[in-house]
Design goal:
522 residues, alpha/beta, Rossmann fold, GMP Synthetase, Chain A, domain 3, 9-stranded mixed β-sheet
């Protein structure tokens, strides 16, 4: 199906249900659907030829989700824009995809003015929340399409090869690449999400607090197919999230692990009722098993994990609520370190560098096949060919699979540390350090070492008011991991730098230590 078909099915089945709550604003599915038609008509009235890239630069706001849906209905191509990115990176990506449309919030007016001078392909700008400037407000823009008839550009197959989005990769190892998200991959993701994330709720309520420009926007879209009410918070604030769960009787919540850790460490985390939660989804990076165990204790048997990547969005694997809760209670506790089993629409394998599929418990690269895999990188055929070797999609993530089919990610392939000839996976070391009750967050990297080539170094953020010595952390790690895998040094810091997508920025962490090295490995 076309991407917009999934929203329409949810809207047609629940026309009077509240689709979006944003502050005091309440928008029904009938009203939301009509707004998306108005946006699509206005884009066509302004000369939209078809698959033109269109982005949204804004904090979380109901109009972000509505504009995203309007872009899809018009047949344009959604290009996520993260307001936290540096302007040079934003401009570079916009020029790469030849951005033609930009919907933006007025507070980013100065940024948009600079973008406009540096992105010559950008021809249409719409201010979401203010009229009277150089560009029309969204309300004024929508009126420009009042005389335009609706256009049904669908085909009998659901336009499976048409672009829904050109979505940037994380960009932690260089300029972001644009992933060609087709209707086939988007539809596969949505249909699996409605199955795996349904929560068996009569009236789902999804709390959106992570940036809608990233995975949260994808989650918000997919739950519209369930007729869910999307509650939108302007940004992540731990206490506001905790308060909002009982206030709105939230059933669905998605967070990256770093935000989840902030919830768990909040002093008022045990002061609210979380019994409405059915699907508390964690995705984006591996989660500390000890934090998962505590999360089940605090929030109940609602926690689940999915693993995916921009190139195969959200649902390559899924660790369901029942299995995760059982593991937290002591039934196969090792599964707390797993991201689950492969989902129904993909074939997963673990492969070595020679293209051989490995047996259980042998670490190698996760490779995938199936309709969830997207259409490669935009205008980058060589990069696309690189991740399609041996007839599989290569994720760049290192993992092993156990005898029951559970997948255990041990690292990004490029982040593996080789010290004294031994392979050390930073995620394994991080999990050991996160088991210390005093630790809020940590990141493990390699640093050059004259004797071992690379040495394992840990950067550690302590919880407020807690104290811990380097000696204590090293002693704990040696007991847990042995001398080879244990860090050789510990650095305590106030925070761990993150990418705009909220992931640990290992490139930034490594930079000071590898600045004068001729290459980035030893």
């Amino acid at each position: 199906m076309q991407a917009i078909d999934y929203f329409d099915k949810g809207a047609e089945a629940n026309p009077d249900r509240i689709a979006i709550i944003d502050g005091e604003s309440r928008i029904t599915y009938r009203e939301a659907r009509e707004i998306t038609f108005k946006i699509a008509r206005a884009m066509r009235a302004s000369g939209l030829p078809g698959e033109e890239p269109a982005g949204i630069l804004s904090h979380n706001d109901a109009r972000v989700l509505l504009s995203m849906l309007g872009i899809m209905r018009a047949g344009a191509v959604w290009v996520p824009v993260n307001y936290r990115n540096a302007i040079d990176a934003t401009v570079e990506y916009m020029n790469y995809v030849e951005m033609a449309w930009l919907f933006y919030q007025s507070q980013f007016g100065d940024t948009v003015a600079e973008i406009q001078t540096r992105v010559p392909s950008l021809r249409h700008l719409i201010c979401l929340d203010r009229d009277g400037g150089k560009h029309p407000s969204l309300d004024s823009f929508m009126k420009s399409g009042d005389t335009i008839d609706d256009l049904d550009w669908g085909d009998a197959h659901g336009n499976i090869d048409r672009l829904v989005g050109v979505v940037p990769t994380g960009g932690t190892t260089g300029p972001a690449r644009g992933v060609r998200v087709t209707s086939l991959a988007w539809g596969t993701m949505t249909e699996m999400a409605t199955h795996y994330w349904s929560g068996n709720c009569a009236h789902p309520v999804c709390l959106n607090t992570a940036p809608l420009s990233h995975a949260a926007g994808v989650v918000a879209f997919t739950v519209t197919a369930l007729g869910a009410t999307n509650v939108i918070l302007p940004k992540f604030e731990a206490l506001e999230v905790l308060r909002s769960i009982p206030r709105y009787q939230v059933t669905h919540l998605f967070l990256p692990p770093t935000a989840f850790y902030n919830l768990l460490s909040h002093p008022e985390v045990r002061n609210f009722d979380y019994s409405s939660l059915r699907v508390f989804l964690l995705a984006g990076s591996p989660v500390s098993p000890d934090k998962l165990r505590r999360g089940v204790e605090v929030f109940g048997p609602c926690l689940c994990q999915s693993y995916g990547q921009t190139e195969a969005p959200m649902l390559l694997t899924f660790l369901d609520q029942e299995t995760l809760a059982a593991a937290a209670a002591g039934d196969h506790p090792e599964r707390l370190a797993s991201c689950g089993k492969p989902t129904s629409a993909v074939r997963l394998a673990i492969m070595n560098d020679e293209g051989e599929v490995l047996p259980p418990h042998q670490p190698g690269e996760i490779v995938a096949r199936g309709s969830l895999v997207c259409g490669g990188y935009y205008k980058l055929p060589e990069a696309t060919a690189e991740i399609r070797r041996f007839g599989w999609h290569h994720t760049g993530d290192v993992a092993y699979m156990d005898n029951e089919g559970y997948v255990y990610i041990v690292d990004r392939k490029k982040d593996m540390i080789i010290t004294g000839g031994f392979n050390v996976f930073s995620v394994e070391v991080e999990a050991a350090i996160m088991a210390l009750s005093e630790v809020h967050e940590c990141a493990v990297i390699s640093v050059p070492h004259d004797l071992w080539g690379e040495a394992v170094k840990a950067l550690v953020v302590l919880k407020a008011g807690e104290q811990l010595t380097e000696e204590a952390v090293l002693r704990h790690c040696k007991a847990k991991l042995g001398g080879v895998k244990a860090p050789k040094s510990i650095e305590f810091c106030a925070e761990i730098p993150k990418t705009a997508a909220g992931k640990i920025d290992r490139k930034a962490l490594r930079a000071p230590y590898w600045e004068h090295a001729a290459r980035q490995v030893h």
